[in-house]
Design a protein that fits this description.
- The chain contains one helix and eleven strands.
- The chain is an alpha+beta fold.
- The chain has a four-stranded antiparallel β-sheet, with no helix packed on it. Strands 5-6-7-8 form a four-stranded antiparallel β-sheet, with no helix packed on it. A three-stranded antiparallel β-sheet has the order 1-11-10, with no helix packed on it.
- A hairpin with a 5-residue loop joins strand 7 and strand 8.
- It is elongated, with a radius of gyration of 27 Å.
- The N and C termini lie far apart (about 105 Å).
């Protein structure tokens, strides 16, 4: 009589079941890591450094009146209005978050994704954007323009008190 082995090799079907189960668990694990990383990155809201760190945009006199200057480090635009006031605007469209470049020849921000456009104050000129561009606090100390790019402010319209001015006698 033949002696039976106590350990039978697994059948092909059970082997493939084990392989597919292991691969499925690994794929789900990777998906969870991607989702957690995505959610963490979106929650922080920080550009760089700690909240309250100011980005020096430059000397106030170096920004021509009625101009828009991109700041890549802080991902914002610094606008100097006709009256000399400064306004820092987010470079993200309020519709779906696309990057909005400044079109100098058209004097407007234009969203390439869905056609929204904004004027120099960040107000909506053409929809579907639901509200103006977010703004960042601007501070002017010793004639140096500084922007707190960690604290964006949602707004419904442009108000003159959103502008920062060089204090008289310092420029």
């Amino acid at each position: 009589m033949k002696e039976k082995h106590s350990e039978n090799p697994p059948s092909r079907r059970s082997f493939l079941t084990i392989v597919w189960t292991v691969l499925g668990v690994a794929a789900v694990g990777e998906l969870i890591v991607v989702i957690i990383t995505f959610l963490r990155r979106g929650k922080s809201g920080k550009i760089s450094g700690k909240a309250g760190d100011l980005i020096e945009a430059g000397n106030a006199d170096s920004f021509p009146v009625n101009s828009v200057t991109a700041n890549i480090q802080g991902r914002f635009y610094l606008c100097r209005m006709e009256d000399g006031g400064f306004l820092a605007l987010s470079s993200r469209c309020t519709h779906l978050g696309c990057s909005v470049p400044w079109k100098e020849n058209e004097k407007r921000f234009a969203c390439p994704c869905h056609g929204s456009s904004f004027d120099m104050t960040g107000c909506v000129v053409t929809s579907p954007a639901p509200r103006p561009l977010d703004m960042y606090p601007v501070y002017i100390e010793n004639n140096v323009v500084k922007v707190d790019a960690c604290k964006s402010t949602r707004r419904d319209k442009f108000l003159k008190d959103q502008l920062a001015y060089v204090k008289k006698g310092l420029s």
